Every structure is written in C-alpha cells, then in structure tokens.
Amino acid sequence: MRDLAALPVLLVLSGCGSPPAPPAEGPAAPKTEAAPVRILQFYAAPSIVAPGQSASVCYGVENANEVRLEPEVEPIQPAFSRCVPVTPRRDTEYTLIATGGGSEVRRSVRVQVRAGPAAPRSGGETVPAESAPAGPRIHSFTANPAEIEAGQSVMLCFQVDGERVELQPGNINLGGARVGCYTVLPRQTTEYVLIAREGERAARQSLTVRVK
Questions:
Q1: What's the burial of 37, exposed, middle or buried (CB within 10 Å: 0-12/13-18/19+)?
Q2: Residue 104: CB partners within 8 Å, gap ≥ 6?
Q3: Which domains does the chain have, with CATH numbers?
Q4: Rounded mean pLDDT, 151-170
Q5: For residue 141, what pLDDT is reported?
Q6: Where are the alpha helices (DSSP H) in the chain?
Q7: pLDDT tens-digit map of 170-189
Q8: What burial letters (b/e) apply to 125-147, b meaning 16+ CB within 10 Å?
Q9: Edge to edge, what strands does the sheet with 82-86 contain?
Q10: CA 191 – CA 95 distance, rounded (Å)
C-alpha cells in the first residue's frame, strides 16, 4: 500500500518541471532581390527600306531569362548583342519584350517601307535610289554603360554599312564587320570615334564614355 500511495506524488512531480525554452532565433537572413531586367539597346538598321528590302532589328538585354519579338520573326534568346533580319511588307512596329525575376520590360522600334526617290545620273538621267551608290553609313554606335567606375569595362556596339570599320583611339581595325561589339577598358573619360570606310569615302560617329 505504501508503494501505491507514493505513485500519485511521483506523477505530479514529473509534471511540475518548466516547459523547455524555445530555440533561440537568429537574425532573419536578408532577402536578395533579383537584378532588374534591362534592355541595353534596341534599334532597326536601316529604319526605312524600299519594298522587298530587308532591315536588321538589333537588340541587347541584361538579366533576362526570356526575350521575344512582336510580331514574331523567329525565336530569339537573351544576348548582349544580336541582330535579326526582317522584311516588312508595310510600315511595321517591332516590340522587344524581355522578362526575368518576375519583371517585364518593353521597347519598340518602327521600320517604314517607302519607295525611294530617284537618284540623278550625269546628263540628267535618273535611276532608282536603291541602285545608286550609298557610300558608308553608320546606323548606330552605342556604349553600354556610358558611365563607369574606374576599372570597369564598356561594350561598344555598332551597325554600319561599309567595307571596313575602325575604332579610335588606338587605331583598332574591326575588319569588315557590319554589326558587332568591342569591349574597351578606359582609364579616364574618353571620346571614341567609329569610322566606316568604303573606298576613299568615310563616315564617322563619336561618343563619350565617362569614368567617375
């Protein structure tokens, strides 16, 4: 009987302890935000074409998981610099859509279709503009980014018509490329000059990259 009488006391004592303290919580880990999607460049070269002629729609994106063109020309992938040929039958607005990290950005360009004016020959005879010598042309020349901290690099991208392309300073020969990009590492604020040559003729365009 003494053993049975002691049993309730033991049961009561076993339930009198303090509840275990909850595990200590450390500081919450900071949430990392996805880098924003950016359209670095989006342009058409040339932006005016004759019926049946083609143009190039060129784009560059950053931090994008998916890109597409509307109206769709062909499936495309994210890239820093890429061009897609288009042959619109009428004036057409092309829209680049880039998505990533739950965000979406858009930019549009317009390609116009026009019958070009006649170009004069010697003696007063005329020929269609598309058969007249066009000479070298620079459709675009961009820097990404245009302002940097010391030690950072810059991508210079271009779209030209010409037999050969040069970049100054440095007498950099880019060969016969009509579309491309070239990476530079300026130590100070620098003016870059793109030169498209065809025979003895040349077209020039400049831009400035600022170093903080």
A1: buried
A2: 37, 97, 98
A3: 35-116 (2.60.40.10), 134-212 (2.60.40.10)
A4: 86
A5: 85
A6: 2-14
A7: 888 888 777 778 888 899 99
A8: eeeeeeeeeeebebbbbbbbeee
A9: 38-45, 55-62, 82-86
A10: 31
